Amino acid sequence: MKILLLLFLVSWAIAHPTGESHRDKRQAAKLSTKWTNGQVNYYFGGTPLRDRRPMILNQMNYIQNRTCIKFVENKDAWQRIKIDLNDFTSCRSKVGAPGSRSNPGGEEVLEVGHCAIIFGTHIHELMHSLGIIHEHQRPDRDDKLNISQAEVVRRGLQIDMGIANWGTTSLLTPFDHGSVMAYDINHYEPPIMSAKDKDSDYTLGNRRVSFHDMYKVNKFYECSCPKELPCQNGGYTNPGDCSKCNCPRGWFGALCNEAPCGGSCVLQAKPEWQTKTVNTSYQFTGDNMDGFTSYFHHIQAPYGMTIEIKIEKLDKFICRSSCNHNGIEIKYRMDHTTTNPLICCLNEKQPFAQKVISSVKNPTVIEVYSKDRTEPAAATFSYRYIDEAIRFG
Ligand SMILES: [Zn+2]
After folding, report:
1. What keywords were assigned to this record (predicted)?
2. 124 is in an annotated binding site
3. Quick one: fold of 2-219?
């Protein structure tokens, strides 16, 4: 029986790589409501084969460490969620706190039995519970995504794939292909969604949790600190710990003005190509259980020079949409606070990754990451700078 169940679960997970049910009929049922004072009361129910509680508690901590949201275990609270761990439950949540805006309170059930065992899937469901909709259902999503409306209607997916016009909460931050709230392009088979920016196709569905995911929660709940810090590089004072800033990926220190590894991971570009190999393997660092470990570098050039990067080799990388096993993010675009295109393939699936990537940023952040339970992997890239003034002068 257990083997049969496992086989069923494995086949289900393959069919639904992001882990979420597409049968949720309640998502757009009500305007999203907020938890009073940002306090989410919860309790666990059910007895699963695998105890997900440590993983879920870890992901709650991830949110708490970066926002003013607090998770409190209290099954008698007037406003609460039951986190149903049973294996035969789905993977879904109501959007917003229990009750309605005019009559908040009561109990909602957050089903996690079929959520994929990967960091970010429970954050996705918890964010629904906080009132956040899917990234691909934002009112502005048609600027960024191609979604076959005919297929949506034909397959009856209007609720999961339609625009949530009431979901203006999502507009508090820019559209982010790397949001934990976006589906993988292969969530449905055959696919019905792709990115208008082809280079971002494999970024959709990534589960690392983006900078803007937490920023959106902070804005929706109007989280703040008594004193604003002078955060740099797009960071903002962290309502989860007012003594430091929340930083975009690749920037460190209390004020987001420090390079990775205390400065020892800065690569000085020259006019000629140099090569660097970054080895990655998962390490538990506090709030990334079943999650990702990232290795950051800055590539730096003299003022006014343009940095170029070429991926030379991806060793043991798993080439799959959403780049959820290993990947590289190069912050080469103007907006480094949103997720730049993720790379996990060096073939025709990601043609842009085979070319020289020209960056508008100096320094340019380059991140190589690996997920728990993937083999150690390595990425090799080359970098240099060119003088655009000479080329175009
Ligand atoms: Zn969802």
Report:
1. Disulfide bond, Glycoprotein, Hydrolase, Metal-binding, Metalloprotease, Protease, Secreted, Signal, Zinc
2. yes
3. Collagenase (Catalytic Domain) (3.40.390)
